[in-house]
Design brief:
By secondary structure, the protein is α/β, with parallel strands linked by helices. The protein folds into 2 domains: 121 residues, Rossmann fold, CATH 3.40.50; 68 residues, lambda repressor-like DNA-binding domains (434 Repressor (Amino-terminal Domain)). It is 52% helix and 12% strand. The chain contains 10 helices and 5 strands; from the N terminus they run E-H-E-H-E-H-E-H-E-H-H-H-H-H-H. The radius of gyration is 22 Å and the shape is elongated.
Length: 200
């Protein structure tokens, strides 16, 4: 997914914080929606898909912790970063129990926040470096070709003199394959490297 396809929702009753965060994150080409009236967040989440939420904890209309429970009912898998000027052990524990990605204290450093957002998106495989994207495509193609050849992982490993574990890691994009490794795999699959990289 490209950065300009990623939708981020910022929920903070402080309009200045909303605008500051928007200015920071727009630099990374994300699409940003800000909400300073927290009760408007749930209807917004029901009508639009967001990939990440940045949520303040201390808000007058509804506490961030309560809002987070409601958010999880709508989208249990969405990545959430908690932002708070009043960190406490209790709120940190509660946040972690609600599977938030991170808990950021205000005032925050701009680059640290940008890194946290990037890491949250990467953890959901929404933001990939070009090399990671290539590894995923290669892995998928190897798995498909192995299936077409009706070969198990073990059979392909025997044909290539590679370990089952390595081939499995390549297919799952957990490991980048060297050219010599890919050569062994394509030879065993009766195709060329050019065929492997075609349409990738």
């Amino acid at each position: 997914m490209q950065k300009h396809d990623i939708n981020i929702l910022i929920i903070d009753d402080d309009k200045d914080i909303c605008e500051s965060l928007k200015k920071i994150l727009v630099l990374d080409s994300y699409k940003i929606k800000t909400i300073s009236k927290p009760k408007r967040a749930l209807p917004e989440l029901q009508k639009k898909t967001f990939h990440l939420i940045i949520l303040d904890l201390k808000m007058p209309e509804i506490r961030g912790e309560e809002l987070l429970i409601e958010i999880r009912k709508i989208n249990p898998d969405i990545s959430v970063i908690i932002l708070t000027a009043y960190p406490s052990v209790d709120s940190a524990v509660q946040a972690l129990q609600s599977h938030v990605f991170d808990y950021v204290k205000k005032p925050f450093k701009i680059n640290e926040l940008r890194d946290t957002v990037r890491n949250a998106l990467r953890s959901k495989m929404l933001l990939l470096e070009p090399e990671e994207e290539l590894n995923i495509k290669i892995g998928k193609k190897v798995r498909v070709l192995r299936g077409e050849n009706r070969l198990t992982l073990k059979q392909l490993a025997e044909r290539t003199n590679l370990s089952v574990s390595l081939i499995s890691q390549i297919e799952r994009a957990e490991s980048a394959a060297s050219i010599s490794t890919l050569n062994k795999i394509v030879t065993a699959l009766n195709i060329s490297l050019k065929d492997l990289f075609e349409n990738i």
